[in-house]
Amino acid sequence: MRIGIANDVMLAAEALRRAVTAGNEHQVAWIARTGLEAVRLCRDDHPDLVLMDLNMPELDGVEATRRIMHEAPCAILLVTGHPQDNVGLVFRALGAGALDVTATPVLAGDGDGARALLAKIKTIGKLIRFDRAHPAAPGALRSAPGAAGQVRHLLAIGASTGGPMAIAAILAGWQAPPDTAIVVVQHIDASFASHFARWLNEQLSMPVRVVAENDTVQGGVVQVAQSNDHLTLSAGQRFHYRAEPLDDPFRPSVDVFFKCVAAHWAGSATGVLLTGMGRDGAAGLLAMRQAGHVTMAQDQASSAVYGMPRAAAEINAAMDIFPLSKIGPAIRDRIRY
Question: pLDDT (tens digit, 9 = 90+) per residue, 180-190?
Fold first, then answer.
C-alpha cells in the first residue's frame, strides 16, 4: 500500500516511516507536518492509507480526518502517543471517519510497537481489498438493572467507520425500558473496546457495559462487544465469543451477531446498520428481516462512509433507510413504552 504519514514530531514520523518500510509490502507516499498539509496531499497525491496523529498544528487529527473524508476519502488509522489519554479526541476522530487507533511506536527498539502497527495496517489492507473486490454501487461502568428473563425486545446495532458518534447520537437522551436489551457490535480493536464502552457510558442516559463470555441478555442497558473474536448469541440467550470465521477482516463481525439474532432470538427484535466501510452486516440484516424482525439502515447523506448501509440497501435487507437524525425516533416509536 501507498501510505501517507501525518505527524509533526520528527522522531515519531521517522519511527512510522521505518516501520512502514521495514518490508517490501508498503511505501511511504508522503509525510505531512500539519493537518492542513495532510488534507492537501490527500487531494493531490491520494494514498491508500493515512497514519494520522491527533495533535498537530493548523488542523488537529479530528478536523483533518473530517476534511479528508469529505474532500478525498481514504482509509485513516489514528496513530498517536498514549491514545488511552486522549479518549475524547479518539472517538471524535473515529466518528469523523477514522477506522481504528493504535499507539505510535518508539524510534529506538520498539519492536512490539512496530509489529502492532503493521498488524493494524495488514487488517486495514484486507478491508480495502475486500471493499474493492466487492464494490458497492454508486467513569466506572454502571451495573445493568434488567434481567434476561424479563427481556422481550432486542435492539441490535452494527457499525464501523464513523460508528461511535452515530451510536451515541441515536441513543442519546433515551432510557430503554427494562424489557428491552440493546447490543452494539462496533468494529474496534479489543484493546480499545473498554474505552469505547466508558466513553459511550458518558454520552448516554443508560448504563453501558462490555459483554463478557457467558453473559446474559439484559434489559435497560447497552451491552457492547469487547473482543476481536465474534460475538454470538445462543439459543439460551447467552453471549459467547468465537474466533471463526478466522479470515473475516471485520472483527467483531456484525453479520455473525445479526445472524445469531435471526436464528436464536425468540422475542421481537430491531436490527440497525450504521455507517461503515465494507459490506459487513448486510447479509445479517437480511437474515433478521427474513426472520420477521424490523430492520433499518442509515442513509448515504448522513453516513461517514456509505459502505455497509449501501450493501444492505442493495440486497433489500433494510425495511427503512433513514438519516441519522431519524433513526433514534424510529427506534423509540418501534419500541413503544
Answer: 999 999 998 88
